[in-house]
Protein: non-specific protein-tyrosine kinase
Organism: Biomphalaria glabrata
Amino acid sequence: IDIRDDVLSNDLRPDQVRLEGKLGSGQFGEVRRGMCYLTSRSNPVPVAVKTLKNNDPAGEKEILSEASLMKQLNHQHIVRMIGVCKGESLMLVMELAELGPLKKYLEKNLDIRVWHQLELMVQICDGMRYLESKDVVHRDLAARNVLLVTDHFAKISDFGMSRMVDNSSAYYLAHGPGRWPLMWYAPECLYFHKFDSKSDVWSFGVTMWEIMSNGSRPYDRKKPQQILHFIESGNRLNKPRNCDDRIYEIMLQCWEFSKEDRPHFQLLKISLEELYREFLRL
Ligand code: ADP
């Protein structure tokens, strides 16, 4: 079926969506806060709406493919899509994560406790474990793409780069480096453009590092070529200040050079939960 018909079967009429202020800017337009009237009887629900600037056809295609992927996902730690709305331009309507990007939250809340950091990691890992089970690779997991609903509830967002993994080859082969978040990418992504859940595991390790580093930028100001050389020579991001050795040990497992040596999200979640329970008792 045509992707457009597929997605628009989940459509909303323009009069069901009321746009309010700006939440952030996306690649093809703004993300705005809004209210969505799901039925004529019920109260409207608060939403986030990805809008398109000047009906850019490339942007339209991106939004539709993002929507068709999101539509297949249903998990508490993944931002849910509510529908697509074709008004003057195409809009992707999602549930609202009131507190916004985790990266900004980390930058503001410098006194965050270890159990709280672990709590968020467990939740992100749980969402990623779900994606892994659905053969979806996210390809852009980073603290900027995790949103907070409350201080203690994280959701993975931004499925603009996400893809279903091809069953026969078990990885997604990308066409080439576009606007790639290189600092979050595993070596096989950079060398061979191959993406699977184990490359998301690498990005998860970098996300853990961001969580333990108050949302700092990984690899300082190193250039992409320097980072590749740095990794190839066996170096890794340093242990964040005051980071528990066992938490750093998990990051290092995520950054094993061969993806076969990295743990699955399933196992990562068990290790993180154990640490979380321990720090909660302290
Ligand atoms: P793009 O992939 O085009 O960069 P994003 O999906 O990352 O767009 O969204 C851009 C910004 O919009 C985010 O950084 C965030 O601030 C805001 N945003 C996006 N989705 C939501 C949401 N569901 N709830 C709250 N804010 C959101």
